[in-house]
Amino acid sequence: MGSRENISKDTISLAGKSGQVWGVAMRSSPGSLKPIYVSPGHRISVESSIRFVKLCCKFRVPEPVRQADIRSKIFLQKLKEPGHQVIGMSCFLCIYFVCKAIIYQMLRFHTLSSHCCF
């Protein structure tokens, strides 16, 4: 996205050899040179995925990912304190559930507070 021909574009389609669009590279904030990559999931279009990500971007990184990163760092710092032990995948499961809870809250907030439909 940093090349001269792409400097004014907010999104660039990422398509395979068959022409099928797999996702987009997107500027989440004006003037950002580092794109984020958005791809559709089950039963959601590329366009809807882009709109959803734009709704979630207060900063460069979408808010659910940013919050999960912040909270996982706090969690890991607490684990480094004396007396804590990590057992197997407990650390990763905690991060997974934090992400899931944040996304649920954001979806709930947008459903209740706006008339935007995907």
UniProtKB/TrEMBL annotation:
GO terms, molecular function: RNA endonuclease activity producing 5'-phosphomonoesters, hydrolytic mechanism; single-stranded RNA binding
The membrane-spanning stretches of this chain are 86-107
What GO biological process terms does the UniProt entry carry, in alphabetical order?
Answer: DNA repair
InterPro entries linked: Endonuclease-V
Pfam families given in the database record: Endonuclease_5
Q: Which UniProt keyword terms apply here?
A: Cytoplasm, Endonuclease, Hydrolase, Membrane, Nuclease, Transmembrane, Transmembrane helix
The cross-references to Gene3D superfamilies, in alphabetical order and at most eight, read: archaeoglobus fulgidus dsm 4304 superfamily
Subcellular locations according to the entry: Cytoplasm
Cellular component per GO, a single term: cytoplasm
Protein name as catalogued: Endonuclease V
Q: Origin organism of this chain?
A: Vanilla planifolia
